[in-house]
Specification:
An eight-stranded mixed beta sheet has the order 1-2-4-3-5-6-7-8, sandwiched between helices. Strand 7, helix 8 and strand 8 form a beta-alpha-beta unit. The chain has a single domain, classed as Alpha/Beta hydrolase fold, catalytic domain (Rossmann fold, 3-Layer(aba) Sandwich), CATH 3.40.50.1820. The model has no long low-confidence stretch (mean pLDDT about 90). By secondary structure, it is of the alpha/beta class. Helices cover about 35% and strands about 20% of the residues.
């Protein structure tokens, strides 16, 4: 989705537009949400496949009030970001965003957590597993409703409709296999990992979380929740669990 449904100011938040240049000279866009008062840490937020940061902000808008500044990034072709969407390009955009974040004065000497949802969670796993800077600077990774393999989730979504079930296998074969989260989640360690997934998720099956958890290294924690896909942090209970994870690994 190229248009923006809202800006942070519409929901009472201070923010700064951030425009960055990728290595291919594409302009990508994000929002930086500052904290009033003491900064406990920073959350780098990677959204899911649908829409853009203007709708996914509902997952993280509450964090600045808890002392955590937030950087939300739109991958190429999402929101106000240029380019055409693809997995390797999005990973490059995430690298560009982290490099910018590490240069910010309010970020230095404070814990940084990477929080991804759905597609963002799946990208986050590969990114942290393979990026030396992420390994060096991140205090933890939170994966909300990640899938195991790109082909798995394409096949699952296609199989749910009688219009597409005949094409579920050919479509899945066209999806890249180089970046499958289940093959890389073990390399996220020793960065602490929190895997969250709803048993009621109708978009990305809950069973994927168990496979990722089994393949991951320590330290790790698995959180089983309820509710619709993408709605995890609308729940006060889940917000508390997230903050507890931040507090636990801010001290390490």
């Amino acid at each position: 989705m190229k248009w923006q449904a809202q800006t942070p100011s519409r929901i009472g938040l201070e923010y700064r537009d951030v425009y960055l240049r990728t290595t291919e000279n594409l302009k990508i866009h994000g929002w930086f949400l500052p904290v009033k008062g003491e900064v406990k840490g920073t959350v780098y937020f990677l959204h899911g496949n649908a829409e853009n940061i203007s709708t996914h902000i509902q997952s993280v808008h509450w964090l600045p009030a808890q002392g955590y500044q937030v950087f939300l990034l739109d991958y190429r072709e999402f929101g106000l970001s240029e380019g055409k969407a693809n997995v390797p390009g999005a990973l490059g955009d995430i690298t560009t965003g982290l490099n910018w974040l590490l240069e910010q004065e309010t970020v230095s000497d404070k814990p940084i957590f990477l929080l991804g949802q759905s597609l963002g969670a799946s990208l986050a796993i590969y990114f942290v597993a393979t990026d030396e800077s992420a390994q060096d600077h991140l205090s933890g990774v939170v994966s909300d409703a990640a899938f195991t393999r790109y082909s798995d989730v394409v096949r699952y979504v296609a199989s749910k409709s009688w219009l597409t079930w005949l094409f579920q296998y050919p479509v899945s074969w066209m999806v890249t296999r180089e970046y499958d989260p289940v093959d890389f989640v073990g390399d996220v360690a020793p960065v602490p990992l929190m895997l969250i997934h709803s048993t009621e998720d109708s978009v990305v099956p809950f069973e994927y979380s168990a496979l990722l958890f089994d393949a991951s290294g320590e330290p790790k924690v698995q959180i089983e929740t309820k509710g619709r896909h993408g709605m995890t942090f609308h729940s006060p209970e889940n917000r508390t669990k997230l903050l507890s994870f931040f507090e636990r690994y801010s001290a390490d």
